[in-house]
Amino acid sequence: MKRSLLVAAAIALWAPAPAQAACQPTLANQLETGDALQLVTVVAPSRTSTQAELRLWRKRGECWSAVTPAWRAWVGGRGVSPSKREGDRKTPAGLFGFASTMYGVARNPGVRYRYHRIVCGDWWVEDPRSRWYNQFRHVRCGAKPPFTVVSDDMSRSPTAYRHLAVIDYNMRPTIPGRGSGIFLHASTGRPTLGCVSLPVPQLLQVLRWLDPRRRPAIAIGTPTDLRAL
Question: How crowded is the C-beta side of 47, counted as CA atoms within 13 Å?
């Protein structure tokens, strides 16, 4: 009997592990997402669409599973593009991370990232000729910035910039003219200038859920764009 038990144990030890169940055939499970364990998908029906479906996903094993239903999000007024340029009013298509600091005119809503509360004189630099292009800069309130501006400072957008996450687009490296200030921010009820926006309740759910320790990524584009990543 003892010998039989030892043989059975040896067979169990060397037997191949059962194959993992196949992942569900969702778009998220067709993407190359690196080491991300959290994923936001923003899927537009076409490159000229100004609205998209946004959904949150978490990785379990090798598979992505949905955390939320699809929410309606706004994208750029001229749609999405894998070849965005400064001022084209298009949201960049591709797979991106999130920058290490979140911002907002309102106080920190309880996010897991560093949070900077926006005040007068806070700018996101949109001047491709500036050494601070596509970076946050503070200038004394009311002072003339040392770069060309095409919009008001961030504090003048209390609706859109109530809370926001910075999408890590054109930041490593930063290429002049490729686009700047791509945010996930609060909806104003219309297309964006190149960002992604959500109604405040859904936005807060996203911002509180994102965890830098889980290396979150955001995938933006049409289904064709995203499958080509």
Answer: 10
